[in-house]
Amino acid sequence: MDEITSLMHGFSVALTPYNLGLMFVGVILGVLIGVLPGLGGANGVAILLPLTFTMNPTSAIIMLSCIYWGALFGGAITSILFNIPGEPWSVATTFDGYPMAQRGRAGEALTAAFTSSFIGALVAVLMITFLAPTVAKFALKFGPKEFFAVYLLTFCSFVGMTKAPPFKTICSMMLGFALAAVGLDTVTGQLRLTFGHMELLKGFDFLIAVIGLFGIGEILLTLEEGLAFKGTEGKINAKIVIETWKQLPKYWKTMIRSSAIGCWMGITPGGATPASFMGYGVAKNMSPNGKNFGNGELEGVIAPEVAAHAAGTAALLPMLTLGIPGSPTAAVLLGGLLVWGLQPGPLLFTEQKDFVWGLIASMYLGNIVGLIVVLTTVPLFAAILRVPFSIVAPVILVICAIGAYTVHSSMFDVWLMLVFGVMGYVFKKLDYPLAPMVLALVLGDRAEDAFRQAMLGSGGDVTTFFSNGLVGSITVLALAMLFWTPVRALVGKIRGVAS
Amino acid sequence: MNVASVSTLQSKFASRPVSKLQAKFHSTLLTTIAASIACALAIAQHTSAGAAEAWKPTKSVEFVVPAGTGGGADQMARFIQSVVAKYKLMDQPMIVVNKGGGAGAEGFLDVKGASKDPHKIIITLSNLFTTPLATGVPFNWKELTPVQMMALDQFVLWVNAETPYKTAKDYTDAVKKAGPSKMKMGGTGSKQEDQIITVAIEKQSGAKFIYIPYKGGGEVAVQLVGNHVDSTVNNPIEAVEQWRAGQLRALCVFDDAAMPYKAKVTKELSWGDVPTCKSQGLDVDYKMLRGIFMAPGVTKEQVDYYIALLKKVRETPEWKDFMEKGAFDQKAMNGDEFTKWLTKEEARHQSLMAEAGFLAKK
């Protein structure tokens, strides 16, 4: 098999002490970037890109992609410990990760999250290794209508994900759509809902909303509860890793489902964030433990993490084969390729074998390195929970403010973060779910663009969403997901009556 | 475990995590500091002694890109950054910052607001003219300080290589035959350069397209490969790889003369072999500015520093490769000549956009 030979060659390129050293440096930097909310993988890679100008392209991309893996791993840490997603794709990890941490199972949740991330990545890398050309062709099949169908599927699989009443979920989601609509409208090129305020023309950044809603909101809530001392019973030792690993194999079905979702969303390119939500939603609907999701179920941590990391990894495939980035971070890496004198595109695989297979080999190695780095730090991170909240809270507040500022280097965003914080607090007090709003905020804009592009193309004909096998089946699947929860509830009722 | 050992354990952990957090802060800080020191040291050794520059940056220079990551402007900015770093052309680091909100208005307003700040430069594309005209956001190129035109970016009419169209005329005839609003033209953004060219093609040929706006040029090229649109007017650099792979066909270039690059890009063709649209009966001529501007109120000395810096950038072999790969028109100018060019170009955009009905309602 050609791929195996090429891959072995790739390992010989990647496995030098220098490159291994870069991997460790990259992963550690990446984890730090992942932990700091706001300073996302894309920002982090962009900031560190200049450091790689003098390296050879293969070493440079190994280091930068390791930063990327690190950020993917690191995003879960603050989600689980403090209910503050470090990265957009770890929002879904908070749903069950944080309740676990509150019950003293932080170590378990972290181990599960990291291991799941690793498994997701591994599946995606295997796919890249053996199926890249085929899969690249599949990605080309995605036009506006297909993209809209994918977003529709994400929203539909989300319904019934939270325990809140449907009315509250819809309210929250609609507010998210409204916020997503602020700024420049791609289709008409006009500014919308800015009311003449120039600060609003860039719209509401998802990251700032997340930092405010989750981070500041959570702190306000905890302040009110009198600086409660949470998660004190956290077991902190290396055994916890082994114990958690023992539990993981029984969730193989969830892992397979989430890997498939992740690979697909990474290629199309939906990205890691929708993948994590979809992974969580599907697991909740399909799992026998679905009812317990949201109360600290291990499976609820595994599902989004596997999907997010698989998607994050798979996002590099369209970048390498088509020259389109599957994620913002991939977009920055793409810029890097040009700087190093490589042109991403259909010919990269044939013309730059060393580089491509070196990178693919480094994906295997980088994730192994990443797993080792993060697992050894599980006890350390879990121990943060033992610090009195009165000390941690100000630190989190400062980190949040720095994070919000770095997104656009704008002080306005810091104020905006505080406003979102109050909003998050109010939402929590009134028992409205935050996640639907976040999801709508991150995908609303893209879903709207895709819908309107499809409508322009079809002359306003809605049947375009059933016009071919691919888009038709995604749309049908989406509608099926939408009605799955009520139908299942109905069936349950009928059965209950019958018996 | 007895009570005492538990409490010692707790105290151990209570002190460690804090220092861990601080360590994290420190290490990020340290990395940044270490990196900048390393840069500064390396640069200090190589600074050309005795250069007659009266002014030099005293802190890091922010290079604003009024567009998202991965697009043409972003690529060029990061490329300039890499050349400056590689040849150590500047004592201070150059940092690329994307401020693409509101079709670039975010970036332009940021630089406009940074009056007299010599540590901020911005790369422009056609949105320098189109964004204020189409959205009514209050800024004008005259409120910035023009520094240097780096190059002009060409536009090429592309179709999928699987289609039978060999010339621009074949294609516009097919569009006319299909009837109005049947064939799709994909482009970057709305009421920006791609749509302006589309309207100009429609005017010239009588064909009528459905214009579908996307967020970035790379995305547009891939949509054409996937047959989701029928044609595009991508810049050469946005579609060159798909052209080389035999997935796209270049029909004509929107310039009054053919491109000067003779090296083969695909198996048979060079950029120079792409005919002008004018020669195909499609009299449309449009090129896009890739220029550098500074904030208002900077001194002549400061402008001259950047002109000299960018001159050095343009003299590197890397830059020449970059120009050739993207088939840029290597026209470069500064000073009065540049200002005159900008005035003319603004008037042209004003009339093009007025004709197309793209001006913001006052």
Task: Explain what this protein looks like in three dimensions.
- The complex is a heterodimer of chains A (499) and B (362).
- Chain A has helices at 2-14, 17-35, 41-48, 57-82, 91-102, 106-140, 144-158, 166-180, 206-224, 239-247, 252-267, 272-286, 298-314, 316-322, 328-339, 348-351, 353-383, 389-408, 411-429, 435-458, 469-498; strands at 183-184, 191-192.
- By secondary structure, chain A is an all-alpha fold.
- Chain A has one domain.
- In chain A, β1 (183-184) and β2 (191-192) form a beta hairpin.
- In chain B, the strands form 2 sheets. Chain B has a 6-stranded mixed β-sheet with strand order 2-1-3-10-4-11, sandwiched between helices. In chain B, strands 7-6-8-5-9 form a 5-stranded mixed β-sheet, sandwiched between helices.
- Chain B is globular, with a radius of gyration of 25 Å.
- Chain B has 2 domains: 61-153 and 288-356, Bordetella uptake gene, domain 1 (D-Maltodextrin-Binding Protein, domain 2); 156-280, 3-Layer(aba) Sandwich (D-Maltodextrin-Binding Protein, domain 2), CATH 3.40.190.
- Residues 1-31 and 37-51 of chain B have low confidence and may be disordered.
- Chain B has 11 helices and 11 strands.
- In chain B, β6, α6 (193-205) and β7 (209-214) form a beta-alpha-beta unit.
- Classes of the chains: A mainly alpha (499), B alpha/beta (362).
- At the A-B interface, α2, α3, β1, α15 and α18 of A face α1, α2, β2, α3 and β7 of B.
Protein topology:
The complex is a heterodimer of chains A (499) and B (362).
Chain A: H1 2-14, H2 17-35, H3 41-48, H4 57-82, H5 91-102, H6 106-140, H7 144-158, H8 166-180, E1 183-184, E2 191-192, H9 206-224, H10 239-247, H11 252-267, H12 272-286, H13 298-314, H14 316-322, H15 328-339, H16 348-351, H17 353-383, H18 389-408, H19 411-429, H20 435-458, H21 469-498
Antiparallel strand pairs in A: 1-2
Helix pairs in contact in A: 1-17, 2-4, 2-17, 3-4, 3-15, 4-5, 4-6, 4-13, 4-15, 4-17, 5-6, 5-13, 6-10, 6-11, 6-13, 6-14, 6-17, 7-12, 7-20, 7-21, 8-20, 9-18, 9-19, 11-12, 11-13, 12-13, 18-19
Chain B: H1 3-46, E1 61-65, H2 72-86, E2 94-98, H3 105-113, E3 120-124, H4 127-135, E4 145-153, E5 156-160, H5 168-178, E6 183-188, H6 193-205, E7 209-214, H7 217-225, E8 231-232, H8 236-244, E9 248-253, E10 288-294, H9 300-315, H10 317-325, E11 333-334, H11 335-356
Parallel strand pairs in B: 1-2, 1-3, 6-7, 6-8
Antiparallel strand pairs in B: 3-10, 4-10, 4-11, 5-8, 5-9
Helix pairs in contact in B: 4-11
